[in-house]
Design goal:
Blueprint: H1 2-16, H2 24-44, H3 46-65, H4 69-78, H5 83-108, H6 124-140, H7 144-153, H8 156-182, H9 192-227
Helix pairs in contact: 2-3, 4-5, 5-9, 7-8
């Protein structure tokens, strides 16, 4: 009797569902718009066209892969899952190898190493800022890339987060000179190849990432075992 009631309820809910719209025409329209805008931007600047195509490609990958730095930090505590955490660790390992190869290539050729402007001093202010940003992105439900992705999906709460993200960024850029002079510059800059050498820096960073990967995997196993 209970099974027949459940079956009847399931049939009624299925009948009440609205049929899904065919998304294929929208897909073709989006591709056509993407190509048209790329061609138009190319008449203005090939760089703008490249930025447009790269942005669309990254947005598509982020949306389909559900790749999110916020989820990598939030999910272990909320659900016990560390799959996104491990995905971020793998991404960091791959970028470590690739960017080190690029920088080493420039250094061995006697050329200025690219990206050195991002080797900035670290201090207590770095820890405080990282903590504040981490809390903010968890409450907002996304970091910068995740917020942009969800705005594109039509999430209005993330649109609100993006508006204040822009406001906060503008305020930060406006006062950055003061912060750099009085706070940031007081810290110490560390470039790992200068301390451990190129190979030592890579092995150290990959070793730390490997340890974090193993810890994340073991954490998920323990959380899964404790929930059963």
């Amino acid at each position: 009797m209970a099974e027949s009631n459940r079956a009847a309820t399931s049939r009624r809910s299925s009948a009440n569902r609205k049929p899904k719209k065919n998304q294929i025409p929208f897909g073709f329209a989006a591709v056509f718009l993407f190509i048209a805008v790329a061609l138009w931007l190319n008449t203005k600047s090939s760089t703008l066209s490249l930025f447009w195509m790269t942005g669309i490609a990254f947005g598509f990958i982020l949306q389909k892969g559900r790749f999110c730095f916020t989820a990598s930090m939030r999910d272990p505590y909320l659900t016990g899952s560390t799959s996104m955490t491990r995905a971020v660790i793998i991404a960091l390992a791959l970028t470590t190898i690739s960017f080190t190869a690029i920088k080493y290539g420039y250094a061995s050729a006697g050329l200025p190493i690219p990206g050195m402007s991002y080797v900035v001093p670290i201090s207590l202010a770095t820890l405080i800022g990282a903590f504040m940003f981490g809390v903010g992105m968890v409450i907002a439900g996304g970091c910068a890339s995740g917020t942009l992705m969800r705005v594109g999906e039509g999430f209005y709460m993330n649109l609100l987060a993006m508006i204040f993200f822009v406001i906060g960024s503008l305020l930060g850029a406006h006062d950055f000179g003061w912060w750099k002079e009085h706070i940031i510059s007081k810290g110490t800059s560390i470039f790992l190849p200068d301390v451990f050498g190129w190979m030592g820096a890579v092995l150290l960073q990959l070793g730390v990432l490997l340890a974090l990967y193993i810890l994340a995997e073991e954490y998920e196993k323990k959380r899964g075992a404790s929930s059963h």
